[in-house]
Specification:
Strands 1, 2, 3, 4 and 5 form a 5-stranded antiparallel β-sheet that branches. Helices cover about 35% and strands about 30% of the residues. The longest helix has 13 residues. The protein has a single domain, classed as Alpha-Beta Plaits (2-Layer Sandwich), CATH 3.30.70.120. The relative contact order is 0.27. Helix 1 runs parallel beside helix 4.
Length: about 120
Amino acid sequence: MSSSRTARDWGEGLRMANKTLLVVTNLPDRTAAETLARALIDRRAAACVNVLAPCLSVYRWKGAVETAEEHPLFAKTTEDRYSLLERVIRELHPYELPEIIAVPLAGGLAAYLQWVETETRPAT
């Protein structure tokens, strides 16, 4: 094996990934996106939130096809903190029905995944 990573390193990254989630939501403007991102971090519901560039969303809502410019958010959290993260999104999100999609990770850098777990623990 020419890589500096050992089989143990790979296994640890896979084990920890099973507890880590990438949660996706979209906000209607940059201000709302940044406000939500900050709240998720402040409440330790997420370790890191990426506010992405606006994108065009096309969807069906109440029988009509709609389009909207939205700002995607990617929040990294743990299974244990997901319910808090969802509550914060629902509390602060301006949409009647916010998109909240949690994707479990298949793998990742063990040190990063440990950092996500550490940063989402309740403050003592």
